[in-house]
Every structure is written in structure tokens, then in C-alpha cells.
Amino acid sequence: MSKSVPWRLLSAVVVFALVITGVSARADEPAVSSSATSGSTQLAPQSAPQFPPLHVAIASVAPFVLPQTTVPEGFSIDIWNEIARRMHRDFAWYPVATQAELLPAVQHGNADVAIAAITMTPERERVVDFSIPYFDSGLQIMVHTQNDNSFVGSIGAVPWLAIAEFVGVAAAIVFLLANLVWLMERKSDRSFQKPYWRAIGEGLWVTMLIIATGEHGERDAPGVWKRVLVPTMWLIGVVLIAQLTATVTSSQTVARLQSNIRGPDDLPGKTIGTVPGTTAADYLAGRGLPFVSLNNANEGFRLLMQGNVQAIVYDAPTLQYWAPRLGQDNVSVVGPIFRPEKYGIALPGGSQVRKSINEALLAMYDDGTYEQIYRKWFASSK
């Protein structure tokens, strides 16, 4: 029994030591855990930063940005709304008075983006960046519809060239009919028993009488062929006269509604209006053509209908949008589209959102969203 006491005592000491060690370890755990927690708080990724709203500069130029609307509307407005939605970016509109102020707003930091109907040019590319193009455009001409009802105007509107062509065709037909009359009458009528050209002269006279009256001089014993030929010749004459009348009438109507400006080559010597700072103004200046400066397209339409300018040179989509709304009896868009151009979204040089905008536009092209927006605004003109 005496030998077992030391072993028991030794066992008790060991157990006590283990207990003390465990308590000490547990006492140290909170400090280690706190330190680890503090370290993890410093190294954990922070939440995504909240970007400030983008300031988007716009200027009225229908149908891209419609004028005088409570909430901005238009093709470019719809395009930007969809881009911003796909980028998950808030924005605020920054309206400017004229198109010429759009690029300076971006250059001077007043706006992060500018969108309306901004033509991409090498000169502009040197001062701002552009997105990929989102609209194909060009220049066109609008003129005041003429409506001259005077006698002199009517004479001037006669399509003399068309009449000359018609008379040539009609003369050939009448000459052919005169030969038929000659063949029919040469054996029975002494008036046709002459040399050929004199007999054909008689045939022409008879043919004209038939066309004018529908009758032939001989009524007593007309033959079968004569009964067929006379009304046929009369009907042919009626058709010729009707065609001549229609040609003159329609040509006069069209000529009255047309201007003597039918394309860019007719612009020299005319009073032209356009908006300064636009590609239309650059085009006219490049050709040495002076122009009346307009604040906007609406002012140009008013001056055009008042006769203060003879033509407006401007972006084709805008002119085509306004022409039916101003009335075809008042204005008309003439000539082909010239100086092709592309619209883009303007941004400051090195803008961080340019890539996101391009990606959104490409996705809109790919999934058909762009086409839907395009048809909404331009289905009637394309």
C-alpha cells in the first residue's frame, strides 16, 4: 500500500497540470480570436463604390431629341436610356440651347456624355472621344413649295420637251392611219388617185377629220372595212388627245410644286440657311457658299416659308421628319442625300465609360433592341 501512494500522488499531479494547461489555453483563446477578427476586417473586400450620376448633355434636334417636351423624348433619348439601363448607371440630363454647345459642354467638364445628332468628324475626334457609330445620316435640302398660278407661271410650267416627244409619237401614228385611208380609198376615190405624197396628204386630212368628228365624208355606201376603220381611228384620236391633256396638266402641277433647286449643284447664288457649328455649315463654308445663320431648324422653317431664305441645308433625318409635319404644300425635301455622315456619342478624352457604352450598343445591335427603337422613329421614312 505504501508503494502505491507515490503513484497515486504522481497521477494526481499530472491530472492537475493538464487541467491548469487547458484552462490557460482557453483563457488565451479570446485574444487570438479578436486579433484574427480584426485582421479579417481590414483585409475583407469592401462593397462596390457608388458612382455619381452621369451628366448627359442634349440639344433639341428632332427626331433625335424632340423640342419642347416636359420629359426628354426622341430616338437618341431612347438609345441612351437603354444604354444607361444596361450599364446600371444613374444619370441626369444637361440640356443646352444649341447643338454647337454640346461638344464644349463635354470638353469643359460640364457633361460626362453628349448625345443628340452629333456627327463624327476627324476634327471633332481630336478634342473629344466618340462611341461606335449608332446612326447613318447625311445632308439634304429643303425648299419652299412654289405655287405660281399666274398666266406666265402656267406657260413656264408647260413641259415643252415632253410635248415635243408626244407630238412625234402622235405624228407617226397619224401618218400610219393616213396610209390605211389611202389604201382603202385609192381605188374608189379619185382624190387618192394621185402621186403617193399628194395622196397621203389627202389621207392625213381625212384622218384628222375622222379624229375630230368621228365621221367619214362618204355615208351612202361605206364598206365593211371603212365601218371598222373610222371608229377605230376616232378612238385612237380620243386616246391621243386625252394623253396630251394629262401630260400637260400633270406636268404643270408638278412643276408648280417644284423648286428650281433640286440638288447641291443648284445652291450657288441662292440664299441658304443652316445652323452654325454643324457639318452642314462646314460643308457650305467648304464650297464657299454664304449662308444665313439659324439658331435652330424651327427658325429656318419659318424663314423658308416667309421667303427670307430659298433653301435650308441640314441633316437629312431632321428635314425628312419635319417636312410632312409642316405640310407638303409648304415645304419639300429635294435631291439626294449627300455628304454621308455617322452619329456618335461624345465623351471626354479617356473617359472610363466609353468601353461600357460601346459594349451596351453592340449588345443592342445583337439582340434586336436597336432595331426596335429605330423602327419606332424611322419606320415611315425608310
TrEMBL record:
It is a multi-pass membrane protein. Residues 53-380 form the Ionotropic glutamate receptor C-terminal domain. Residues 53-381 form the Solute-binding protein family 3/N-terminal domain. Its main location: membrane. InterPro entries: Ionotropic_Glu_rcpt, Iontro_rcpt_C, Solute-binding_3/MltF_N. Residues 1-27 form the signal peptide. It holds the Pfam family SBP_bac_3. Keywords: Glycoprotein, Ion channel, Ion transport, Membrane, Receptor, Signal, Transmembrane, Transmembrane helix, Transport. SUPFAM superfamilies: Periplasmic binding protein-like II (SSF53850). It is found in: Membrane. The chain crosses the membrane at residues 160-184, 196-214, 234-255. This is Amino acid ABC transporter substrate-binding protein (PAAT family). It comes from Paraburkholderia unamae.
